[in-house]
Amino acid sequence: MGLLHNTFKLTKTQRKAVAVLAVILTLTSTRVQAAEQTSVLPDAPQWETGSVEQNDNIGHSLIVPDRYAGELKEAQSIRVMRVTVTAYASVPEETDSSPFTTADGSQVRDGIVAANFLKFGTRVRLPELFGDKVFEVHDRMNARYQDRVDIWMASAKEDRDFGIQRNVKIEIL
């Protein structure tokens, strides 16, 4: 320690920190060597099969081992809540004067939902009804509906058949 003190002009506290780091490095090195000698570490990498999961909104992907895929899907959801889910179609009695244009100006298509409590572009899943299918908020509902999601469907018959689904789990991504 005298050499370090004279060469680098270390304070007493700094010298103690260097000593602690030296002990930690020595112990870590000893444990790695012991593990290598007892074959605790694998000889070769263990490869796992996995699936590509979408990780963000700009196209980056992540390969996730199959055994963790379910946990990743749960982790990706920002918030989980229960809502009432209904459906609507592009017919005048269920929309305004422009039935094929959503509130944010986009055209209706499969995967569009209306919700007043979420921002436009918010992605959601309804796993109890649609599994892993991801929907996106592009439309609004009557102002009296605050905790409700309305799914666009291609025909009025489909939306009538869907009916009202209460207490449905929604994952906000």
Overview in brief:
The protein is 30% helix and 28% strand.
Number of helices: 5
Tell me, what's the shape? elongated
CATH architecture of the largest domain: Beta Barrel
The first-level CATH class of the largest domain is given as: Mainly Beta
Q: Write out the CATH superfamily name of the largest domain.
A: RlpA-like domain
Helix content: 25-40%
Which series of helices and strands comes N to C? HHEEHEEEHEEHE
What is the residue-averaged pLDDT?
76
Low-confidence sequence ranges: 44-48, 54-59
Salient structural properties:
173 residues, alpha+beta, 3 domains, two-stranded antiparallel ribbon, 8 strands
What does this protein structure show overall?
This protein has 173 residues and is α+β, with helices and mostly antiparallel strands. The protein folds into 3 domains: 36 residues; 30 residues, no CATH class; 94 residues, RlpA-like domain (Barwin-like endoglucanases), CATH 2.40.40. The chain is built from 5 helices and 8 strands. The strands form 2 sheets. Strands 3-7-4-6-5-8 form a 6-stranded mixed barrel. Strands 1-2 form a two-stranded antiparallel ribbon. Strand 1 and strand 2 form a beta hairpin. The longest helix has 26 residues. About 6% of the residues have low confidence.
List the helices and strands and how they pair.
Blueprint: H1 2-8, H2 12-37, E1 50-54, E2 61-65, H3 69-76, E3 79-89, E4 112-115, E5 123-125, H4 127-130, E6 134-139, E7 148-153, H5 156-162, E8 165-172
